[in-house]
Amino acid sequence: MSKSSETSPLASSSGKHPKYRGVRQRRSSGKWVSEIREPKSPNRIWLGTFPTPEMAAVAYDVAALALKGGDAELNFPNSASSLPVPASSAPRDIQAAAANAAAASGAAMDAFLGGYGGGGAAAEPPVIGGDGFIDEDLIFDMPNVLANMAEGMLLSPPRYNYYVGEETGTGNSMDHDLWN
Fold this sequence. Notes:
It is built from five helices and three strands; from the N terminus they run H-E-E-E-H-H-H-H. The chain is of the alpha+beta class. A hairpin with a 6-residue loop joins strand 1 and strand 2. Helix 2 runs antiparallel to helix 3.
C-alpha cells in the first residue's frame, strides 16, 4: 500500500474500504455496498447497500463463512459464532442471512449510540448511566429470545426410567418418587 492510501479515508479511487474486506463506498450516494465472489467461479453475490461500512462488513462475513467455511478471512472474527447461518449455499439464502445480520448489527449500533450522530465513525459515544439510555431489548433481540425460550418450554421433559420388576428401598414397587 502506498503512503498516500494509508492516510486517506479510502484505500483507493475505487472506493474500497481500507479496513473491511468485501466493502466499498459508492461515489454517488456515499453509501456502502458489499459483495463477495463465489469460490472457483467468476460470479459474484450481491449482498446489498448499507448506511455504514460496519453493516456491509458483517454482511460480507456471513457470506464468507457460508461460502468458504472456517478458512474465510473475516472482518470481525470474534463474532463469527454469533452470525446467522444461511439455510443453504444458494445465493438467495446467503443474501437473506447477510441482510439479517447487517440489520441486526445496525439496530444494535443505533441502540448503543442512542441517536448520537447516527452511527457514523465520528459519532460521539453515549454517556452510560445518568440520563443516558441504551435499549437493551434491541441489542439483545429480547422479543425473539423470549419467543425461543417459550418454544423450548413446549418440549416434553425427559422420561423417568422405571423398570416394572425393580424394587425400591421401601419394598413397594409402586412407590416411585423422584426424591426417593
